Amino acid sequence: MAKKVTKIGVLTSGGDAPGMNAAIRAVVRTGLYHGLEMFGIMRGYQGMIDDDIVRMETKSVANIIQRGGTVLKTARCKEFFEYEGRQQAYDNLKDRGIDGLVIIGGDGSFRGAVQFSSEFDIPCIGLAGTIDKDIYGTDFTIGFDTAVNTAVEAIDKVRDTMDAHDRIFIIEVMGRDAGYIALHSGIATGAENILIPERKTDINDIVTSLQEKERRKKLVNLIVVAEGDEFGGADVVYKVLKEKLPLAEIRVCILGHIQRGGSPSCLDRLIASRMGYHAVECLLEGRHNVFVGIMNNKMHYIPLENAVKNKAKISEEWLRIVKILAS
Ligand code: ADP
Question: Full-prediction pTM beyond 0.90?
């Protein structure tokens, strides 16, 4: 029988995502409801190493559900890659009596949790907080819905001006390793081409279709490209197209960090609240080293190790839909 947790630390780590605050709030309030002592660990694993840890009460998480970013701050922490760093983090947690951790972050943060929990006896529960939606074993990640809606809103605006001038626009969205934001925002805005890391880009196909449009004097075209597309980001695509279509008016728009910020959508607040609640329930039930996922509207507890070994795949169905609808 696992020892009952009494003190839980919560942290946000790696890339920030809208909805992290809603998740922190849910974790803290659920823990307090059960009579646990709750702690906020500042700047992800860095705060664990620096012992930058604060008590969290109901009031500490008041008025944050609607705010983007994270009140606990986030960071990438080099020292946590080293055993000595993790040992220091463990000693600090032990000194404070913290006997359970909730880690809100992406696959990198989960990798850190897998490493930490293989060496030390503090159970870790992960919550998938990433705008990239690339976590295996869950239909939702906290932040994706907001980020993709931000992208859609921006692309719609660009489309208006693109249409007014008959231009080609190449819009770069976030996604270094994953094409979900590009795929979803591209489909939702009726993009003619969507370039994602998961699928090889045949630039010649795009050039041929644009040349055909040029002949018909209808050279207006929206291309959405993920920053990590294997062919390259928007600037590379621009160079190639400009070379082949020197007379065409081509513009590049890189959406960048606006996709990370802003008030979380209703969906992100809901899934963050639900996952945060279940993270604490998990610790109380004696689960350890899993992350809380939602599949087919049911909660699933997936070993963190599985989450980091596998990658969420974009379905063939979506790729087929893109091809047919953009033609
Ligand atoms: P994300 O969680 O958004 O994917 P990162 O990949 O930057 O972000 O990871 C966040 C942090 O997790 C890293 O800065 C590091 O502190 C920790 N981490 C990632 N991988 C490992 C690992 N293999 N061992 C220990 N810590 C790791």
Answer: yes
